[in-house]
């Protein structure tokens, strides 16, 4: 297989720094299944192309087969299907461009964070789903996709197309992101891997999909295919990918796609037809949002600010209710706010609704006049992303300076983590801590006492009799005398 990466950002030879591969050298990297070679067909100031060529050695592949790998007997030598060529290329890419995928460049540390005009080409790529699937996977990531089916034989068009496509991606992106897109999505297109899929594949998917997979419209399909249609692993991956720890239950269930019938999907998931037809419980993130909205309505808040609004899910729900006459959203990430504006369709929003909304960038550990004047503030799955030594600063900014009448704080209950299969550690890679119920209660009561508030506690999600609910909420109300 062949992958070429081209840039026209001047000086284009900076591509060599990013890839940690010198343009004047041909380098070979031995793999357990063959040889990966990196070379530069062109390397100029205005245009530079790096090529990764993977030559698969079927004998080496058979000899390196692990104890748990499937045995394809003679077909290992005469049929390319067992080799899962895209999976092999993804593994070689991860090995050869490991530093570039991590976004590190000691010689030019400013380069990895800079978007570049890129063109990625794979002239022959296994794809189970036709060119349309490639467009569904790559276009939401901002790529201009040119995907064309490769005919079985150009001399005999009546034979139809092969299962291979020629794929070209064009766009502006960080090289780190482009490589991670390929690393995750190449095996998804092929719908196969050349090695046994163990639970640690979930970690690989989470790392490779960081920053983009959670909001991909096809994340359910991606997780299922990447994890070999092992539904328990897909459930775990989707739960960890979701914002602040949880995902919609719809996407944790195996979907019916391509040649899998509804009966087969139901049987493989281990459920009966009656169970499959039973109403599915609402996802935790939906229940959390609904609980916050209901509590705000109960409190009679007319103006609400979502602190740490992320990509605008709660902001959108607030705007959908005319009773909330003023809605604010603040986040430390400009990228999250850009995505929020796109999801909210800010440019096409009616003037009356747009007048109710304020979105702005800021940090919760610094006093900001824009936070004041709201009836209620919401910190939904936010405090656990703050380093513990900085929590007092957040408390001062929200409860001491902004001083809304009400503050709603939700956070994960770490005791409930034992109910998540395969989860090790915290629910999200960016969590600095997760509290149990006693720890959250102690913190909330301490804050309330210091800043003149009263606090009540509510459970969100199923309240497990042994480990409590998955999410805990503190409802702070300012003492009118303070």
Automatic annotation (TrEMBL):
Residues 246-281, 462-482 are annotated as: Disordered. Residues 1-242 form the Hen1 N-terminal domain. Residues 246-262 have a biased composition (Acidic residues). It comes from the Bacteria. NCBIfam families: bacter_Hen1 (TIGR04074). Belongs to the methyltransferase superfamily. HEN1 family. This is Small RNA 2'-O-methyltransferase.
């Amino acid at each position: 297989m062949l992958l070429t990466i081209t840039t026209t950002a001047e000086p284009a030879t900076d591509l060599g720094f990013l890839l940690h591969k010198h343009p004047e050298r041909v380098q070979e990297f031995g793999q357990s299944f063959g040889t990966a070679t990196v070379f530069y067909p062109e390397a100029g100031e205005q245009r530079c192309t790096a090529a990764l060529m993977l030559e698969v050695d079927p004998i080496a592949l058979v000899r390196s087969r692990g104890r748990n790998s499937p045995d394809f007997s003679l077909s290992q030598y005469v049929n390319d299907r067992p080799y899962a060529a895209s999976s092999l290329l993804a593994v070689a890419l991860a090995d050869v461009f490991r530093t570039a995928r991590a976004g590190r460049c000691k010689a030019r540390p400013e380069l990895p964070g800079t978007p570049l005009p890129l063109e990625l080409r794979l002239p022959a790529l296994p794809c189970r789903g036709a060119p349309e699937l490639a467009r569904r996977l790559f276009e939401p990531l901002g790529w201009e996709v040119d995907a064309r089916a490769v005919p079985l034989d150009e001399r005999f068009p009546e034979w139809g197309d092969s299962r291979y496509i020629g794929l070209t991606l064009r766009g502006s992106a960080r090289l780190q992101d482009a490589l991670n897109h390929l690393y995750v999505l190449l095996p998804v297109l092929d719908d196969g891997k050349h090695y046994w899929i163990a639970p640690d594949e979930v970690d690989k998917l989470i790392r490779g999909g960081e920053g983009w997979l959670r909001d991909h419209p096809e994340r359910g399909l991606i997780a299922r295919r990447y994890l070999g249609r092992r539904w328990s692993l897909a459930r775990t991956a989707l739960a960890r990918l979701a914002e602040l720890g949880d995902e919609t239950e719809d996407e944790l269930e195996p979907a019916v796609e391509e040649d899998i019938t509804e009966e087969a999907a139901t049987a493989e998931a281990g459920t009966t037809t009656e169970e499959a037809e039973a109403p599915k419980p609402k996802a935790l993130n939906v229940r959390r949002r609904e609980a916050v909205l209901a509590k705000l309505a109960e409190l009679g808040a007319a103006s609400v600010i979502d602190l740490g609004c992320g990509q605008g899910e709660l902001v959108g729900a607030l705007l959908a209710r005319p009773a909330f006459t003023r809605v604010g959203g603040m986040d430390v990430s400009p990228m999250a706010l850009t995505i929020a504006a796109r999801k909210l369709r800010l440019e096409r929003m009616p003037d009356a609704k747009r007048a109710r909304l304020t979105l702005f960038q800021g940090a919760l550990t610094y006093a900001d006049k824009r936070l004041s004047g709201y009836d209620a503030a919401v910190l939904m799955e936010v405090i656990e992303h703050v380093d513990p030594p900085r929590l007092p600063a957040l408390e001062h900014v929200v409860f001491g300076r902004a001083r809304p009448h009400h503050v709603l704080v939700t956070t994960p209950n770490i005791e409930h983590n034992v109910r998540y299969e395969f989860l090790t550690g915290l629910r999200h890679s960016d969590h600095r801590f997760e509290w149990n119920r006693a720890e959250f209660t102690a913190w909330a009561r301490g804050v309330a006492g210091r800043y003149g508030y009263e606090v009540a506690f509510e459970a969100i999600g199923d309240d497990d009799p042994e480990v409590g609910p998955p999410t805990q909420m503190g409802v702070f109300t300012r003492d009118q005398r303070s």
